[in-house]
Structures are given as C-alpha cells and as structure tokens.
Amino acid sequence: MKPRYSIFSLARNAMNYHKDWERAWRSPNPKKEYDAVIVGAGGHGLATAYYLAKNHKMTNIAVVEKGWLGGGNTGRNTTIIRSNYLQDPSIAIYELARSLYEDLSQDLNYNVMFSPRGVLMLCQTQHEFRAFQRTAHANRLAGLDCRMVTPQEVKEIVPIINDDPNCRYPILGAYYQPRGGTGRHDAVAWGYARGADSMGVDIIQNCEVIGIQREGDRVVGLETTRGAIKTRKIGVVTAGHVSTIMDMAGVRMPIESQCLQALVSEPIKPVIDCVVMANTVHGYMSQSDKGELVIGGGTDPYNNYSQRGSFPALEHTVAALVETFPIISRLRMLRMWGGIVDMTGDRSPIISKTPVEGLYVNCGWGTGGFKAIPGSGWVFADTIANDRPHPIAEPFGLNRFQEGRLIDESVAAAVAH
Ligand SMILES: Cc1cc2nc3c(=O)[nH]c(=O)nc-3n(C[C@H](O)[C@H](O)[C@H](O)COP(=O)(O)OP(=O)(O)OC[C@H]3O[C@@H](n4cnc5c(N)ncnc54)[C@H](O)[C@@H]3O)c2cc1C
C-alpha cells in the first residue's frame, strides 16, 4: 500500500523540500501473462482496473496504454458531471457515477476536486423547454434532485447571462441539477492509477496493442509493441479507437469516431460559479479554479481521428457564447484542442460481453463519458470478473443494436452531433 496523502505527509515532505515524495505509480515491464488485461488507460480503463482489484480482488492484471495515461479524451474534456438523462438505464448508470464522485477523493485518497456547483441547461426554444420538462418528469420519478427554474432564477444563479427577452434566442427557463458540477479530469485518471497501482495492478504506458490473439471463439492473448501478453480476459476501453482494436478480434462495432473540440480563455476573476449549457445556440461554459473559462461546443460534422482544434468550431462556439454571455466578447482565448469521441447511433454507451469469449468492451461514451467514469468502471469490472453483465450494464449490451432496443439519449446528451 502507498503512504497516505494528508496534511501530515505534506508537512513532513515540506521539511525536506518535497524531495522524498514517492512516485504515484510504478512503470513496470509487461509480464508474460495476466488474469485480465484492460486496453486503454483513460478514466474508464483505470477505474475498471481499480474496481477489479478493490471489489473483486483481481490484482494480477494490467492496463496497457499506447501513449500516456489520461492522455486521451479523459485529459481533454470540459469535466461536466451530471446525471439528468432521460431513460431509466441511463439515469441508473450516470447517477451511480455521480454519487461515487461525491466521495471519490476520500476513497482514492487523491483530491479529484469534485465541485458540485450545479449544472444549468438553458431552454431557449419552446421545443427545448418541452423536451426538458419531459426529462424533468422522468428524473423526478427516478428520485433525482433536479428541477425546472424560471428565467428570473437563471439570472439569480448566473448574473452575467444575457436575459434580454428580445434577443435571438431568449431564455425561457432552464433545467437545473444542483448536485451536478465539475471535477479535475487529470486527477481522476491519476487517482485511479495510483489506487490501482497500490493494489498491484501493472499500468504499462507506451505499449500499443497491435493484435488480439484468438483460439477459436475465445481470446488467449494480445500482441503489443512491447511483446506478446497471454491472458484469457481482455477489456477494450479505447474510446475513438475502439473499432480498430475490436477489428483485430474480428468484431465489428456500431461506432463512428469524430473530433470534439474545447478551448479555454485567459484567466479572469470569478464570474460564473456553475456550469451553463446553451444547447440551442450551442456552447457550454464553466470557470476553472485558475480563472480560465472552460468552453465546449459540438462534434465535427464528419468522421475523423483528429485531436486538434479548428477555426470553424472556434468561431461557431465562441459566437454562441458571446450571445449568451456578452461580457466575454473581448476575452482572449488561450488554447484549443480536440479528442476523438466514440459515437453510437442512440448516443448511449456500450458495456458488454462480445461474441468472442473473454473479450469485453466498454465504449460509446461519446461526448459525455467523463461524468460516468466511476459508475462505468464499477459495473464493467463486475461484468469482467463474473463473466455476465452487471444489472446496470445489462441494457447497454451490444445486442441492443440487433434487437432494436435502443436507449435514445440524443436530446439529453446535450451536444450537437
Ligand atoms: C473536448 C471534449 C469535451 C468533453 N467534455 C465532456 C464533459 O464535459 N463531460 C463529460 O462527461 N464528458 C466529456 N467528454 C467525453 C469524455 O471525455 C469521454 O467520454 C471520456 O473521457 C472517455 O474516457 P475513456 O477512458 O473511454 O477514453 P480515453 O480517455 O480516450 O482513453 C482511451 C485510451 O485508449 C488508448 N488507446 C487507443 N488505442 C490504443 C491501443 N491500440 N493500445 C493501447 N491503448 C490504446 C488511448 O491512447 C487512450 O488513452 C468530452 C470529450 C472531449 C474530447
């Protein structure tokens, strides 16, 4: 076990000019064989490894990552956490995740900076207003703490918002989840990595999977750029690259990969203390602890594997937010980036066994999977350990696309695709 982070360890290490901090995780070479291997050290892969070790006592496992851990979408998102989705299966998994976030810093002994500052989803057309009312009813039946708020309440919660009733898209109200908010994305990845490593999980970075070995209908190992690894359980958790990896095992995925972009402004004094999503004009914004405005928009309108920002997305998103928050019109933007998101047709994830024995897949989180990391890792670990879907994961099986049993979340996903 690793020494605990605390005020005392901070004070002790300060006495020695912080030279004695232990590495947060090891950098081991791959062993010849593991009981299970997780492909992809994003938040979902690392959380899966952590709960496999913690909840199911599976510690002879590895996470293999082609780059650096948390360097995919997990380290590139705008960190919004909420659970107010429309369909019951979605509410179950996102609310499990949100509730795990509440105590995650204590559980991991790592400050993930979960900040339940509230998420406001603006209604700027009658259609949007009705759609959110429907979601509000569904969420109330499910027992979620969410409510519709009036334009006056919106203005009280976010004084910088444009409340001009004659503007192009006036605010008609908003859907509000007070216990939604944000977390620190890198810290979530680092916290899970440190926790998994301390229980003996090998996290192997710079190790790309280039082949999956099968014997008949079951997996028996992996080819990686750091050699072959034998295993009888593989969990693929590689977001936008899931189709290419599953293809190595002969499994075709109903996934499209697209770039989703985000940007931050120069830091300014606190101006907004909740998350605002303006889905009609199409932009969302919160403020980081450093003071930067964290801004996101929609996905690129075509499939691609880019991880870079682009001028059309910048222009579209900033125009939408200047309309919503006129005071930001003279702010300079600092940097912009993209991540390769994995989109399903119904905008819901896939957490599933596959037709190949021992091969499991967790993907399709698209533009909204940061908020789901703890819940997804929890149920996927259970699915892998017991070789059957966890009850919360069951509706998200691959078979739903054959059976036409879709879980339509295109409205609640709240980002244009
Ligand atoms: C700009 C942007 C904004 C977003 N905003 C939000 C938000 O506000 N709220 C929210 O909930 N979600 C948001 N998301 C979505 C969220 O970031 C993702 O759904 C989530 O991070 C996916 O995590 P993951 O672990 O599945 O994937 P990733 O973090 O992408 O991890 C997958 C890993 O697999 C690795 N990999 C790929 N191929 C291989 C291989 N062959 N061998 C080994 N490893 C491999 C990759 O290098 C990567 O590290 C946003 C995404 C983006 C891009």
Automatic annotation (TrEMBL):
Main location: cytoplasm
Location of this chain's protein in the cell: Cytoplasm
Matching Pfam families: DAO
InterPro entries: FAD-dep_OxRdtase (IPR006076), FAD/NAD-bd_sf (IPR036188), SoxB (IPR006278)
PANTHER family: FAD-DEPENDENT OXIDOREDUCTASE DOMAIN-CONTAINING PROTEIN 1 (PTHR13847:SF287), SARCOSINE DEHYDROGENASE-RELATED (PTHR13847)
Gene Ontology terms: cellular component: cytoplasm
Organism whose genome encodes this protein: Aestuariivirga litoralis
Name the record gives this protein: Sarcosine oxidase subunit beta
GO MF annotation: an example: nucleotide binding
Origin superkingdom: Bacteria
Protein keywords: Cytoplasm, Nucleotide-binding, Oxidoreductase
Domain FAD dependent oxidoreductase: 35-382
Biological processes annotated in GO: tetrahydrofolate metabolic process
